[in-house]
């Protein structure tokens, strides 16, 4: 019999209970996932995915250290074999809405999804955080702290003792509890408090005879505590970024590990006591030796207070670039999910003090090949922003950016946008930087050679343009660099980049222009603009006329640099939706409604290393690039969340996971061995799906038809020109062999597959019928452009598919 | 209510002497305290920790250690090398006996109180027998080099542990031999400094608890000579240590003013294994805590900042009442200021001198609570130094401001004060009648004609003051039944007919001054409580006294009738102490005249 307790609902960014198992695996809850990190090799070994919501706590199975329990906001407790990443079983529970400590009896059965029924409340009124609950020695009692109350419940004696501290805040004291841990071998409870005190409680089975002593070093809240294996050492951490080790409960003997970089949120001890790890507020885990020596750190995406720079992709490393530590620019590799490096831009000591106005990085732009980096920093003063424009040159020798030019006060007011002229073929001579400012001008900066013999270059202002004294809000260059579009409030102006003549203006009143971008490749004659009045407009640069417009409240407009696709994210009635379109066509290529409940703030296309082979037409636009989103999650802290393609990752460091998952799924489905049975199964599923959906959009189902280029070819070739079956056989068999590699992945993604499939079905229902649903606004629908496939097209598609499958089954 | 002038007197620069040592009575009813100036005080726990007796200090008499022995006898020993017994009824140091080993650093009595052990500068430990009427040297125990700073008897009286510099040793009392010597300065970085064992305790289990100048409290098994536990409670020296009688709790005092509570707690709930754990720290003092004591229900500490702090143990207190209150004694419980109301003079009593001040005055009037500007600043008129090493017992200035008297242990002096334009002149009154000193209280009558001198054995001497500067012994008032205790408090009535005197056994006698007879005798023990310190006020026709804390008594003596009320200050309720018709106490109001007196 085993009892496991999970607080019923606990919104916290990162679950505690990241334990290091004896064989040096570090497990941590990260968003919806549990990650397995090898301490020895410093790599992420596995990913336990299957929870549909935030993982709130993880706990190693005390009877089997290769297994871990995880609890999640989705109301389940899962047991995993974390080495293989296999969910062993899942228990569903129906939780009440209040915070209670309940004891649940986990079912014995070996099935996958079991509903737990035996649920008894142990304690009422417990804190929301798992740091506020601890089990005592040999699980004989449980302790819960909340506000100024400490509750101890003895399981055997069924005795509840409650101790209260005074609420008075005398002499700067604040008795509220922040966390609790229990001594592993003795009956001693250590509690952390909001004023930085640690209290050690003893004799707490007596209502009156209880006693406590206190240790005080921290000046602010004790964020977490941990006992060593034998209980001789107590670790504490807080906002000071110092790990304090207390020996033998003595306030005189203590050791410090200072300068850990950022406030400590959680402390966890490995089960053999050799290592401990601390979780920091900037989304980093530090691994620390038992002799209090810093060992190494696992750095995820740094949570910045505010991502002012937007999401920028470094053309050189394909890393995502955004605000990191204050005043720093972080380069974050999405492929490896780790930080590549951090560039100090502001180069000033950041002082952690509330209310202090300090400079921070607000804009970043890379030149096309990534050799130049332009940054804008401004202080938080509203009246006098103290702007600085810095230009950095990438030096191969040092493999980093070196400061080339610093321009003080490039504009008289805040800089709103900045872009380089992307002209790969013309080389550095054509390199132009354009900045737009709220001082109603845009400025063109060019490189000038210095007179000194070393041939150094520096940047200086070449041209200042303005339009009717409107504030300049956005700028962008066309793909060939010949045209510059600058938006001035309601108007978009197009300038010749050679002569700096105003070529034409576009306007779609009412409403200011929020975003603009040029079309690419085949669509380079189009200019796309989104207004804050809820319109997406496409102007033809050749005819200087409005090509089409749609009524859509676009928040983010992001062109794919490698294709003609443009992604637009709308925000309406508390949900974000994604629309991908080509400027040349007035209907979207892809629609994902209800992408997430949070507002998406930023998006970026990140080029793939190699184009993916995606058969599904629906996802063809993702062939060369991946799309990433940044949402503002309404956590207690401001935390970044990335949404990858589909579904939201509210968590912290999970960046690529959802995305991979989705593609796992695609891959899995495509690589199903095409046996008569599987085809039958596929058919069955398809039929079911078709029955479910009224307007059954068949696009999705096409993905099942091909597993590899071989099969694809096979299917696309008319039957009468196909070679003989004996010839085709080897190719076909080979394709099956390749697909086998993904088999284990299939198992991993089993759980997810179901869910995402469901999600997809939902999206299918939504249909491609379009943007006209944004009717809640006060403007009448102007653009009648919808993007329905004609009935005949639909029919044709269906026919093709049907024919194909019958053909395979015949095979 | 009349019009009042409130003076904020901020020129009484009394510096109380620090607390040097504490001794809890074995039965836990009294606490003896010695200050650095040699004064010894006795506090009564039962009477709300009231300061019952004060024996003023003496320049040549330092007290390093106090102990209760043979029942209620109090002994003190100090760096003068003498062992002194204190006469608690006569409030004087009675007899001294030279210890014979140089300055005495510590003295402890055995569990039965029949023997005293002293630790001397020369490293010897000597045993004295307590005999009726004094003490007698019994024998020397093994002498080793190094002053003996602290001593502790084993509860079974078989062994004594003696703490010294860098080591402590255990002595077998029967043989007088040192059976174990343990160095305490091992394995410490500071080993180049000497490690002073400031306090030590020998528990019945054979554990020795030592507190040393490295800030450690260490637990030793003396038979094995091994260190069982070591608690570094402070970065500064641990100066004092006291263990409860049950040996499950102890208090240590450090040189930073912090005291720490250590408790013997089970390691696991319900388990047998127990361990000493440092639990609560207290920072009541600003300076060194030289003395701590552990009564059954409270932790007591006294520091060089002159504070005595009594912190009740909450788990031992049954009800949350007055018993559970943290007490801090900073101010003396005695009258050190006397006021000449008509002459607007204040007399301040210091340990060895007196100061006479004239109050400032103002010509303006103002509303309630308003601070008025002074037109004349307070003026220091004269400082009168007492000769000799003795400290002053009591002092008084007459209401008219022309007479001033004080008393030390051996002398009683009366002065005539003359204030004129040239300044102040003091003239000693010659030929003061010889009395048995000391005087415990001096009191002038309201018309400044008569001086009352409280004396030993319950007697009050009455002097008539004569112009221009003389005095005459009129009468000696004695209680009819006799009394062994001295009179502590005096209060004459305003009309000069009555005098109330309170002696150390808490009997109140009211004398008729016309015929020098006892008018009324009350013993305020209606319910067996011994409520404490009294200051008396006698309005016409009624008498009342207000004790130090919590409870006030009021007696009305109208035409031989006697009624008493008791006033609970906290509750504001008067309660009659005479049983009502139903045998119960009645809550009723005393006569209005009496209340007026009480309000004054």
UniProtKB/TrEMBL annotation, chain A:
One of its GO terms (molecular function) is RNA binding. Pfam families: Beta-prop_WDR75_1st (PF23869), Beta-prop_WDR75_2nd (PF23769). It is found in: Nucleus, Nucleolus. Residues 747-773 are annotated as: Disordered. Keywords: Nucleus, Repeat, Ribosome biogenesis, rRNA processing, Transcription, WD repeat. One of its GO terms (biological process) is positive regulation of rRNA processing. The keyword Acetylation does not apply. WD repeats lie at residues 48-90. Residues 311-634 form the WD repeat-containing protein 75 second beta-propeller domain. One of its GO terms (cellular component) is small-subunit processome. InterPro entries: Beta-prop_WDR75_2nd (IPR057644), WD40/YVTN_repeat-like_dom_sf (IPR015943), WD40_repeat_dom_sf (IPR036322), WD40_rpt (IPR001680), WDR75 (IPR053826). This is WD repeat domain 75. It comes from Junco hyemalis.
UniProtKB/TrEMBL annotation, chain B:
This is UTP4 small subunit processome component. It comes from Junco hyemalis. GO terms for cellular component: 90S preribosome; small-subunit processome; t-UTP complex. InterPro entries: UTP4 (IPR046351), WD40/YVTN_repeat-like_dom_sf (IPR015943), WD40_repeat_dom_sf (IPR036322), WD40_rpt (IPR001680). GO terms for biological process: maturation of SSU-rRNA from tricistronic rRNA transcript (SSU-rRNA, 5.8S rRNA, LSU-rRNA). GO terms for molecular function: RNA binding.
């Amino acid at each position: 019999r085993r009892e496991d307790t999970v607080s019923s609902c606990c919104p916290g960014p990162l679950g505690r209970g990241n334990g290091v198992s004896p064989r040096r695996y570090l497990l941590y809850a990260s968003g919806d996932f549990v990650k397995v990190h090898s301490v020895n090799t410093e790599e992420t070994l596995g990913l336990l995915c299957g929870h549909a919501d935030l993982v709130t706590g993880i706990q190693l199975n005390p009877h089997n250290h290769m297994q871990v329990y995880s609890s999640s906001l989705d109301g389940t407790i899962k047991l995993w074999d974390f080495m293989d990443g296999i969910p062993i079983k899942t228990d569903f529970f129906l939780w009440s809405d209040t915070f209670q400590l309940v004891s649940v009896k986990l079912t014995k059965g070996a099935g996958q999804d079991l509903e737990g029924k035996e649920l008894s409340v142990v304690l009422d009124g417990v804190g929301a955080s798992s740091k506020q609950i601890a089990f005592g020695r040999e699980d004989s009692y449980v302790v819960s702290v909340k506000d100024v109350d400490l509750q101890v419940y003895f399981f055997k004696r069924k005795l509840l003792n409650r101790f209260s501290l005074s609420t008075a805040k005398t002499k700067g004291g604040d008795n509220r509890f922040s966390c609790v841990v229990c001594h592993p071998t003795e009956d001693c409870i250590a509690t952390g408090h909001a004023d930085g005190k640690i209290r050690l409680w003893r004799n707490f089975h007596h209502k009156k005879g209880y006693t406590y002593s206190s240790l005080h070093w921290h000046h602010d809240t004790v964020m977490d505590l941990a006992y060593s294996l034998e209980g001789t050492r107590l670790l504490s951490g807080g906002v000071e970024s110092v790990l304090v080790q207390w020996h033998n409960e003595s306030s005189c003997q203590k050791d410090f590990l200072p300068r850990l970089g950022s406030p400590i949120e959680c402390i966890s001890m490995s089960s053999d006591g050799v290592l401990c790890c601390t979780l920091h507020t900037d989304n980093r885990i530090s691994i620390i030796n038992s002799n209090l020596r810093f060992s190494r750190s696992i750095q995820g995406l740094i949570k910045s207070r505010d991502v002012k720079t937007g999401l920028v992709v470094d053309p050189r490393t394909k890393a995502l670039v955004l605000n990191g530590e204050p005043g720093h620019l972080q380069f974050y590799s999405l492929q490896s999910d780790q930080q590549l490096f951090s560039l100090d831009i502001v180069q000033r000591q950041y002082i952690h003090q509330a209310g202090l106005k300090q400079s921070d990085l607000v804009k970043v732009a890379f030149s096309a090949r990534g050799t130049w980096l332009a940054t804008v920093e401004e202080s938080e003063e509203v009246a006098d922003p103290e702007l600085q424009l810095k230009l950095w040159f990438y030096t191969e020798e040092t493999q980093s950016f070196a400061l080339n030019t610093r321009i003080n006060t490039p504009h008289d007011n805040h800089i709103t946008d900045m872009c380089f002229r992307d002209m790969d073929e013309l080389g550095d001579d054509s390199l132009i930087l354009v900045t737009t400012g709220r001082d109603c001008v845009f400025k063109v900066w060019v490189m000038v050679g210095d007179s000194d013999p070393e041939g150094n270059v520096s940047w200086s202002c070449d041209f200042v343009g303005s339009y009717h004294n409107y504030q300049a809000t956005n700028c962008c260059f066309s793909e060939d660099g010949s045209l510059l579009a600058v938006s001035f409030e309601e108007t978009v102006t197009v300038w010749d980049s050679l002569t700096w003549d105003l070529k034409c203006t576009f306007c779609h009143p009412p409403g200011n222009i929020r975003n603009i971008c040029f079309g690419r490749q085949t669509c380079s004659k189009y200019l796309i603009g989104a207004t804050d009045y809820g319109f997406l407009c496409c102007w033809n640069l050749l005819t200087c006329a409005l090509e089409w417009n749609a009524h859509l409240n676009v928040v983010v407009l992001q062109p794919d640099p490698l294709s003609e696709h443009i992604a637009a994210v709308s925000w309406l009635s508390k949900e974000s939706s994604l629309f991908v379109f080509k400027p040349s066509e007035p209907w979207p290529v892809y629609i994902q409604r209800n992408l997430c409940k949070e507002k998406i703030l930023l998006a970026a296309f990140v080029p793939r290393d190699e184009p993916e082979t995606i058969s599904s037409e629906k996802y063809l636009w993702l062939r060369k690039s991946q799309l990433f989103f940044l949402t503002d999650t309404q956590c207690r802290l401001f935390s970044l969340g990335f949404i990858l393609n589909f579904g939201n990752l509210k968590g912290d460091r999970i960046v690529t996971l959802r995305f991979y998952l989705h593609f796992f799924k695609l891959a899995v489905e495509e690589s199903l061995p095409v046996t008569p049975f599987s085809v039958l199964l596929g058919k069955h599923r398809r039929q079911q799906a078709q029955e479910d959906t009224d307007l059954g959009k068949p696009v999705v189902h096409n993905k099942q038809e091909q597993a590899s280029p071989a099969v694809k070819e096979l299917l696309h070739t008319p039957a009468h020109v196909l070679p003989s079956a004996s010839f085709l056989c080897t190719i076909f068999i080979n394709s099956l062999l390749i697909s086998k590699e993904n088999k284990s992945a299939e198992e991993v993604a089993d759980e997810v597959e179901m869910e995402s499939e469901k999600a997809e079905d939902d999206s299918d229902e939504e249909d491609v019928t379009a943007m006209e649903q944004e009717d809640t606004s006060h403007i009448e629908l102007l653009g009648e452009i919808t993007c329905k496939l004609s009935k005949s097209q639909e029919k044709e598609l269906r026919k093709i598919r049907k024919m194909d499958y019958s053909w395979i089954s015949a095979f | 209510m009349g019009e009042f002038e409130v003076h904020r007197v901020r020129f009484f620069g009394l510096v109380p002497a620090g607390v040097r040592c504490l001794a809890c009575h074995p039965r836990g009813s009294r606490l003896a305290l010695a200050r650095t100036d040699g004064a010894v005080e006795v506090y009564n726990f039962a009477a709300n920790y009231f300061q019952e007796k004060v024996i003023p200090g003496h320049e040549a008499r330092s007290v390093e250690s106090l102990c209760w022995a043979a029942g209620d006898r109090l002994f003190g020993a100090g760096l003068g090398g003498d062992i002194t017994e204190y006469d608690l009824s006569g409030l004087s140091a009675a007899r001294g006996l030279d210890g014979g080993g140089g300055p005495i650093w510590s003295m402890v009595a055995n569990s039965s109180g029949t023997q005293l052990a002293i630790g001397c500068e020369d490293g010897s430990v000597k045993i004295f027998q307590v005999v009726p009427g004094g003490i007698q040297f019994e024998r020397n125990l093994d002498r080793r080099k190094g002053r003996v700073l602290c001593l502790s008897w084993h509860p079974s009286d078989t062994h004594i542990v003696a703490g010294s510099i860098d080591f402590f040793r255990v002595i077998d009392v029967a043989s007088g031999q040192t059976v174990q010597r343990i160095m305490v300065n091992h394995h410490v970085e500071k080993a180049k400094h000497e490690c002073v064992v400031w306090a030590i305790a020998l528990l019945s289990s054979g554990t020795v608890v030592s507190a040393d100048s490295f800030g450690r409290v260490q637990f030793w098994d003396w038979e094995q000579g091994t260190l069982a536990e070591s608690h570094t409670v402070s970065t500064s020296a641990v100066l004092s240590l006291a263990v409860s009688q049950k040996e499950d709790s102890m208090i240590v005092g450090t040189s930073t003013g912090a005291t720490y509570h250590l408790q013997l707690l089970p390691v696991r709930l319900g388990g047998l294994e127990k361990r000493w754990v440092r639990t609560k720290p207290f920072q009541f003092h600003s300076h060194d805590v030289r003395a701590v004591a552990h009564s059954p229900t409270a932790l007591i500490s006294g520091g060089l900042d002159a504070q005595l702090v009594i912190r009740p143990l909450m788990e031992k207190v049954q009800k949350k009442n007055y018993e559970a209150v943290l007490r801090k004694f900073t101010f003396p419980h005695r009258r050190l200021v006397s006021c000449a109301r008509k002459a607007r003079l204040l007399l301040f009593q210091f340990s060895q001198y007196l100061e006479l001040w004239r109050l400032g005055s103002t010509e303006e009037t103002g509303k309630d609570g308003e601070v008025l500007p002074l037109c004349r600043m307070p003026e220091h008129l004269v400082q009168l130094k007492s000769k000799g090493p003795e400290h002053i017992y009591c002092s008084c200035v007459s209401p008219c401001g022309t007479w001033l008297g004080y008393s030390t242990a051996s002398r009683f002096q009366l002065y005539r004060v003359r204030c004129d334009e040239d300044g102040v002149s003091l003239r000693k009154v010659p030929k003061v009648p010889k009395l048995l000193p000391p005087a415990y209280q001096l009191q002038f009558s309201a018309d400044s004609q008569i001086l009352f001198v409280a004396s030993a054995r319950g007697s009050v001497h009455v002097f008539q003051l004569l112009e221009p500067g003389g005095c005459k012994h009129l009468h000696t008032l004695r209680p009819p039944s006799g009394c062994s205790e001295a009179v502590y408090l005096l209060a004459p009535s305003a009309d000069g007919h009555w005098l109330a005197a309170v002696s150390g056994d808490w009997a109140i006698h009211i004398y008729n001054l016309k015929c020098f007879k006892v008018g009324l005798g009350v013993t305020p023990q209606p319910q067996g409580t011994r409520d404490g310190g009294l200051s008396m006020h006698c309005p016409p026709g009624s008498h009342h006294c207000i004790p130090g804390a919590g409870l006030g008594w009021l007696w009305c003596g109208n035409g031989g009738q006697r009624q008493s009320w008791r006033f609970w200050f906290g509750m504001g309720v008067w309660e009659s102490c005479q049983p009502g018709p139903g045998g119960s106490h009645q809550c009723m109001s005393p006569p209005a005249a009496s209340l007026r007196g009480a309000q004054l």
